[in-house]
Amino acid sequence: MSKAKTESKDSSLVEAIKEAYRFGQEDEELEPIVVVDSSRKRIGRIQRGDSVIFYDIRGEREIQITESLTEKDFDKFGVEGDLDLDFVTMIEYASSLAVRVAFPPEGEVKNTFAEVVTKKGLSLVKVAESEKAIHVGYFMNGKNEKPFPGEKRILVPSPEGVDSYALTPEMSAAQVTESIITQLDDPSVHVVVGNLANVDVLGHIEDKSAVLRAVEVVDQQFARLVEECRTRGVTVVVTADHGTVEEWQYADGTVNTGHTKNPVPFILADFRQENPESLDLREHGELSDVAPTLLELLGLEKPIEMTGRSLIESSSISNNENKKLLFLILDGWGMNRDTFGNLIEEANTPNFDRYWIQFPHSILEASGEAVGMPANTVGNSEAGHLHLGAGRRILLDRVRIDKSIEDGSFFQNPAFRWAMQNAKDKNRALHLLGIVSFYSSHGTIDHLFALLQMAKDLGVREVYVHSLIGRRGERPESGSIYVDKVEKKCQSLSTGRVVTVMGRFWALDREENWDRVEKAYRALVLGDGTPAVELFEANNRIN
């Protein structure tokens, strides 16, 4: 038998994805592709009365598409009326959503840094541009949507009307810095939390010059803020939520647009002291140690819930009445001794380099079990900010769900059983929507596979999979590989069919770019997108 006959042939959908690659598209912004039958009829669209399980786990980027599918009076763009869906989300994306939640919050994360500070009568202001506002607000407050009394959140708009932040790697860093300085000058403000987003955001884009520029911009704004604090006698603490561009390339030279497992820096300059270089810090810690350190600097007692330990080893902090403190987060700034593919090392960062030598510093673990995730997994913004604020290790939803699959309770989950049984009893379709990836902070393919197994066991007849793909933390063109894995899983179970594939860019928006969300909605509900068969035939014509 010839080699050509023994090789497995890609499905029309996988071939369609590969064809899109050949025409210059990439996973993150892949235009929607929909499956059609021989008469070009769209297969597996979400219709009135169907059941939907959105199995993503992060939450903040999943809200808008969920609203469009579930809100009866949704008005951000034209929709097909009330779809009356039996809709389940894996975790709680927002308490306002009219959905059932399979894994609701286990309980309020009490006594986070913001709560402790404000309860003690100190005012706290958080400054971030819109790309990171939810992390500095919601996640840092223990997934608390509302600011605490005495807490203020200042939102600096990220650049609008640009196709890619690669065109504006400066983003709004200068405006964030100016806003922070304004707060430092306000005598009524005691604590300022600031976030410079550039390194993380640009690290997800395959544009080396733009990434280098982002690193250098953050270095410049960081220096401005340190010197402003020096002038005012304000304590400044600097760290990051996770790493990114310090490991921007894989060993084979391809670009890694995801997060990393590397630790992050911690720098303390207490300008209230006569000698701000005099404090002794532990050499190593983790993100949950930051909040206890901040509280010690403010002269506040650590609550019992905070199991993290202050990084300060010497207790030579003076009783200076100046309680002003700046806590600055350099998003995505990791530490890596290896220089290969290390764009922080390659960029011109004289200020960070100087301050690292001059001031007390530590190295903090920001991935895996240190941030409540499975061992040997990369960090992310959600886990990073959550642990920076909580001051304790918190098991993330992925760990909870993985354990439920292991012990079998996943398959008895009442929300899942409700959606699947309704689909079966009403002779309606079950739709499984979410990310297809092993490493994404938004979810894992393993959770999808468990849902497919459950649907098979319950005898659900019509099961459709709508796959979101994206490059972050994955090799180039990995989307087609994951879709192929899902298709093979469906075949092995004789349950389910992948009917939609699109880049996560369209469905997972959090900045109210409703034109993107509309494209995702229309693909899911109306089948707007490139028919897989059409692309397959185009490839045959080219060859």
Secondary structure tally, helices:
19
Number of strands: 16
CATH-derived architecture of the largest domain: 3-Layer(aba) Sandwich
Query: Which blocks of ≥5 consecutive residues have pLDDT under 50?
Result: 1-7, 536-543
Helix/sheet category? alpha/beta
Question: Keywords for this structure?
Answer:
543 residues, 2 domains, globular, eight-stranded mixed β-sheet, alpha/beta, Alkaline Phosphatase, subunit A, 15% strand, 19 helices, 2,3-Bisphosphoglycerate-independent phosphoglycerate mutase, substrate-binding domain
Q: What is this structure's SSE topology?
A:
Layout: H1 3-6, H2 12-22, E1 33-34, E2 51-54, H3 63-70, E3 86-91, E4 100-103, H4 113-119, E5 124-129, H5 133-139, E6 151-156, H6 173-184, E7 191-196, H7 198-203, H8 208-232, E8 235-239, E9 264-270, E10 284-286, H9 290-297, E11 325-330, H10 343-346, H11 350-358, E12 361-365, H12 381-390, H13 397-407, H14 414-425, E13 430-435, H15 445-458, E14 463-469, H16 479-493, E15 497-503, H17 504-507, H18 514-526, E16 530-531, H19 532-542
Parallel strand pairs: 1-16, 2-3, 2-13, 3-4, 5-6, 5-7, 7-11, 8-11, 10-12, 13-14, 14-15
Antiparallel strand pairs: 1-15, 8-9, 9-12
